[in-house]
Amino acid sequence: MNIQPLGDRVLVKPIKKEEKTKSGIVLPDNAQEKPQEGEVLAVGSGKIIDGELRPLEIKKGDRVLYSKYGGDEINIDNEELKIISESDILAIIK
């Protein structure tokens, strides 16, 4: 994959959660919640603040928690990915 996000954007691969309820009922795709957790595949160069380029706190390989409806969904090679602004990322999961 040859995608480089621009500025303060991050390319994230959402991590799907369990598709069954605790009682073992399988949920169809339209009944599942949108994932809010993902793995960072690529990051932009940073954000310009006061004429100075500041790198992002997020780096490739980080596992992050992001805003439920933040970012834009894209489909590349039949894989669903999201391009998210750094401000839509809520936390890094350690």
What does this structure look like?
Keywords: Chaperone, Cytoplasm. This is Co-chaperonin GroES. This protein has 94 residues and is mainly β. It has one domain (9-15, 35-93): 10 Kd Chaperonin, Protein Cpn10, Chain O. It is built from no helices and eight strands. The two termini are 26 Å apart.
Write the layout of secondary structure elements.
Layout: E1 9-14, E2 37-43, E3 47-49, E4 52-54, E5 63-66, E6 72-76, E7 79-85, E8 89-93
Antiparallel strand pairs: 1-2, 1-7, 2-5, 3-4, 5-8, 6-7
Pfam family, one: Cpn10
Subunit structure: Heptamer of 7 subunits arranged in a ring. Interacts with the chaperonin GroEL.
Keywords: Chaperone, Cytoplasm
Q: What's the quick description here?
A:
This protein has about 90 residues and is mainly β. About 0% of the residues lie in helices and about 45% in strands. The protein is built from no helices and 8 strands.
Named CATH architecture? Roll
- N-C termini distance: 26 Å
Domains (count): 1
Quantity of strands, as a count = 8
Tally of individual helices: 0
The CATH homology group name:
GroES chaperonin
DSSP helix fraction = under 10%
- Morphology: elongated
As residue ranges, the low-confidence spans are none
Oligomer: single chain
CATH topology: 10 Kd Chaperonin, Protein Cpn10, Chain O
